[in-house]
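testing teh design pipeline on a random one, pls ignore if ur not involved
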């Protein structure tokens, strides 16, 4: 159940990141709600995961997934650079998250 909450927290964070990118381009109420709502729901799910997983593991995995996801979303949908160095860095983050998951 804890990993499900971490996964839902990460998905919610992706929604918040899209809202943040849209809000930084156009400050509308709907973009602000997507931004604030996505991140707010993400924190709720992360908090719920702490009932099942050690805080250090849940937080590290959530942060890693969120970071990699935010970069990928911005690369795919908002025109950020797709350099080899950035892609390799994302792969390293994913390896670290998988390693934490596998060892916990």
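output:
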């Amino acid at each position: 159940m804890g990993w499900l909450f971490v996964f839902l927290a990460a998905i919610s964070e992706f929604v918040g990141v899209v809202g943040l990118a849209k809000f930084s381009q156009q400050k509308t109420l709907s973009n602000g709600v997507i931004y604030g709502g996505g991140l707010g729901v993400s924190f709720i799910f992360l908090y719920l995961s702490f009932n099942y997983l050690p805080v250090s593991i849940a937080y590290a995995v959530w942060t890693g997934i969120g970071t990699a996801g935010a970069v990928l979303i911005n690369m795919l949908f908002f025109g950020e650079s797709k350099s080899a160095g950035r892609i390799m860095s994302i792969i390293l983050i994913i390896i670290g998250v998988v390693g934490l998951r596998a060892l916990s």
